Amino acid sequence: MGRKRVGRAVKAARKQQLGNQEDHYKSAPHSFVFHRGHVGKNIKILEMDIRKLMEPYTARHLQVRKKNVLKDFVNVAGALNVSHFVILTKTEISTNMKIARAPKGPTLTFKVQSFSLAKDILSSLKKQSMNPMIFNHPPLLVMNNFSGEGLHLKLMTTMFQNMFPSISVNQVKLDHIKRCILLNYEAEDKTVTMRHYMISIKPVGLSRPVKKLIKAKLPDLGKFADVDEYLMQGNVSESEGEQDGPDNEVTLPQSVSSRGNLKSTQSAIRLTEVGPRLTLKLVKIEEGMCEGEVMFHEFIQKTSQDMANLKAMREKKRNIKMLRKQEQSENVRKKELAKEEHKKKSLSGMKDRKTETDDDGYNSEGAQDTGDDDDDYEYFRQEVGQEPDKDLLLSSGNKRKQRMEVRGGKKRRKDNTPNQGSPERSVKKANRGDKKFNKANKNINKTDLKLKKSDKNFNKSSKRGGLMKGKSTAPKLSRKQPKTRPRQRSGKRR
Description:
Layout: H1 8-27, E1 30-35, H2 41-53, H3 70-77, E2 82-90, E3 95-101, E4 107-116, H4 118-123, E5 140-144, H5 151-162, E6 179-186, E7 191-203, H6 208-213, H7 227-231, E8 249-251, E9 266-273, E10 277-286, E11 294-297, H8 304-356, H9 373-384, H10 396-400, E12 404-407, E13 410-413, H11 423-465
Parallel strand pairs: 1-2, 5-6
Antiparallel strand pairs: 2-3, 3-4, 4-10, 6-7, 7-9, 7-10, 8-9, 10-11, 12-13
């Protein structure tokens, strides 16, 4: 059978669905969780726990280096749709957590009074059963007791709400709500308590045997003749059904993908803490990204005059910075102009030099330079007393511009003409050549004498040996040395 063709309507619906998912992903708030400075091992583990808490809209594998500055994260945030920064720092006094809105602020600085890691929370549970698929969907945010007065409290509430994606009651699916973050504000000590829970839904009004039957792993029924016998074992009254109480029992408006949780049925909601725990206290609110005017401070109160002085000082620093940037840009522009001017001058000088004379001693019009030829001819007439030959003297420009060839590591002249210069040099070179020729003749005479001596010695030795008389040159056998002949074998071989 061939493949079933997909119609246009189905393709358009899929394309629209993918577009809606992409739009929803871009509109959802994303976050960076990282630390600044030396924080220690436990703070780094807490950083990874907060990243897991903020999933799936967070940079899980964000790599932070020592040379990275806050400006680097701000520049990358726009391309990745990152809207919030969670920055962990540690000082000698306390551990701080900053929550900043990218890219222009504001920034909320919290003091971490106490914290517990996720591994410590899970180790305290009797039954550690956590499905990793629960982190594929964002958590449900529940805020309690944030309805107080004060601008700082309203700003803190808005910041926490915008860190997580909003939920539409009419479009939400119960299968996507698997986690819950609880934020509780204590007005007495002005602290915020953060807890992270896993949500599980269990059907109520069922006995233990029935609950075992609806699970994925069935119990052992080998010792029972029928399922009724298994269900009727012991007391099976309705009072024995495990009831969680009216506080956590709800009627499901939708069916949930778990056994026994059907639409319009009673189910109990159970929370299992998975960590981390945090106890935070608001210390400071800044107008910009980790800088700017201080809008709120828990411990320091300043007058209007102090605020005006600080604002004037910040404005002065900003102006100085702008002037420095303008000066640097002007210096860079001047250097570039000077470089271009120097380049133009160099190129024009190279062109002028090339037009005067080229490498062969000829100008641009093809005529040979003969500026110093007259001086050479006049000097030769005064010294020698006769007219020089035309080919004897070359132009002074060609003396240094004769082409050379490099062969075997030695420079040789391209033409085979001798080096022609002044007449004194030519005479000296001729004398040197005569001396070399005389030395060579002496060496030849010496070799002839040696050959003659060697011939005489050879003749003497041949006369002593009898070569000239025709005698045999084979060595004679002495009487003491008998003649040896090869032994002949006779008979059969053994």
